[in-house]
Amino acid sequence: MAATKDPRPCSIADALALVGEKYSLLVLREVCLGNGRFDQLVRNIGAPRDILATRLRRLVDAGILTKRIYSERPQRFDYRPTQAGLELEPVLMALMEWGDRHIRKGNDRPMVMEHSCGSDLVPVVTCQACGKPLHHEDLTARPQAEGWSVTGPTAA
Question: What is the pLDDT of residue 3?
Answer without folding.
Answer: 52
